[in-house]
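Morning!

This is the sequence you dropped in the shared folder:
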Amino acid sequence: MSSIAAVTPALAADPVDGARTSGDAMFPNVGNGGYDALDYDIDLAWTPDAVQTGSVVAGSIVATSTMTARAAEPLRSFSLDFEGLVVDSVTVDGTPAAWLRETDAGAIRHKLVVTPSIPVSGEFRVTVAYHGVPQAHIDADGSYEGWNATTDGATMLGQPVGNMTGFPHNNTPGDKATYSISLDVPTTLSDATGAGAAPAAAVSNGELLSKTPSTDGTRTTWAWQQTKQMASELLIISIGRYDVIESSVTLTDGSTIPAWSFVDSTSTTANKATVTTAVSQLGPFIRNLESVYGPYPGRSAGVVVDRVPRGINYALETQDRSFFPTRIGLSTLVHELAHQWYGNNVSPTTWTDIWIAEGMATWSESYYAGSDGFGTGTPSREAQFDAWNRTPAGDDRWTIAPGAQTDSASLYDYQTYDRSAQFWAALRVAIGDDAFFPVVTQWQLRNAGTSRTGADLLALAEELSGRDLQAFYRDWILDADKPAWPDQFTLALTTTATVPLERGGAASYTLTAENTGLVPLASSTATLDVRGILDRASIDQTTLPAGVTLTGDVLVWTVPATDPGRTATTTFAATVADDASGGALTTEAAASLGGTCASCSSTLAVQEYPVDAQAPIITGDTAAGATLTATTPGWTDGTSFAYSWAVDGTPIPDAMTPTFTIPAAAVGRTVTVTVTGSLAGYVAQSRTSAPFGPVIAAIVPSPSPSASGAAVVSPPRGQLGATGSEAPIAAIMWALAALVGGSVLSMAAMRRRRGARRVESV
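The structure's back. Tokens below.
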């Protein structure tokens, strides 16, 4: 009888409700979880009211937005961020879905919670149809974002969370997606008073695919496509009377990308001229920035300059074509172009880490204008140091740590721009240009199209610099006080010695640290790995100067306080060991943060002495067929030997081991052995033994007799007449042989046996 064990089928994971937050400390009720947004398809029609009464144009939208996403696990519900407007319908994969709104404006909570008819798993699509009058979102700091009416249209700007006033989405920089944006707007527009009718444009991100007029020509649909990953706050929708400037930008690799730029048609002639100048500089600016950050990450470029309400008092790095209120400055253009890499190509995971991008973009302004970059102005190091130096330690601006901030009301304050720009300048001082610029570039190349954290940046900087930056990072990014400006110095190691160094000889090592920085040296050290010295020499710790310590095989010099432009020096000595021979005393110095090495390695040759040697000794029997052994007393410990055996001075082929079997042909001759001793760092030596021998013939024993019956022993002929001392010996041997039934050696054989001697050749 057989039995089959029952198998319980694996059960699919139970559906869950997607999180209604992304876990952002700055905006705890914004962003969502449980899915990854892949693409947004926004189809929006905007129409101004027939009658205008205010100073800005009143209008409304009718729109449909589809989000394609992927659920990490089955979701029975999920949420999107959506502020204001009226939801008409929601479908999931084409099937109507239940939905509800959860709103708490004070807590910045605006949720559209969707419950599909069946749980979603893997890739799914949610389509929301909506309409209404979109509203501005007012930040905690009082600035305007989201959908803002202008004097001749509307502009939607998202940073940090305002784009939820225009379309439902996962409103976090940690969830990037691609976009298709279709904007149906009037072909011409007037201002809010009904005057100044002029051609209208609808601006967005990516590449302009088409402009399609309606049948009657009164409306035009502008189709834009963003194929690069983009964080939702970087989406721009701007509608108004624009002069459109179409151009192209040649990149460093010789390829070209299209550029679409837009300037408010009612701008002054002077403002339009600055825009024209800025557009003409897009190519040179981008190519210069490519040399710092790597290949331009977008597929198009341009600028948008619009007349907007005073609440929008900021330029913004909207992806591909940055936004500028009213006018454009070249320094600000550099800032926003730098954001195309820092902030757009690589975005923060949460808003706390906005400092990475804003700090870099602010630093880029000083670097671009400075003589160390592309200009002739104050070098960026000095410019950022001056900003650090003129802000007292007790100033409240130091009390917010960039990487630990949680209050969105202060998101765009000193710590995000100025202190973070100083961080980048200080990092350059701390790790040097050879590591700093690879960090800046690799941050882009490795993380393109993703969102990353400050911890990720720290790990990259440590990897590429080979430095421990934990304390530096904490001081600048996590501590709520004024950070220390790093030391900067050039370290050099020089030696004084007569080479090659003899046993008992001394080598003198001198370390110098030249302060090349902007503050007195306060925490600088030089570290030497002295294993390569101590292998053949010694360092007397009792003679080490103040500030120099030796622990094991590591020597550390604590550089004394040294003013900028001054040099500190220290010297120590090493004495070559009495048994040293060959090789070299080697060491290399390493500087602490902020230090670079001018010449930090030393190699001093040590005199090579011959290995101690004596003639080898042969031991064994002199008879042919015997095995001889060569011994090597009196040689330096550790010596390796090669052997060569000879008979009467003629080397024997292949006889190259410590033992040698005497051949029959060597009878009557002598044997010698030559050994060559080798030891690293020593001169090899060869010695030959004294002659061993002469060699005698091999001893062949007589065959044993056999007999039957009673043994009768009689001496063989020739032995019966033995006389002298041999007679009694022979008689005894024969007697013993008779007792044991053995054989008897002849006297001649006895003589041969007695003639074979065990000797040592010395």
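Headline: The two ends are 88 Å apart (CA to CA).

More detail when I'm at my desk.
O.
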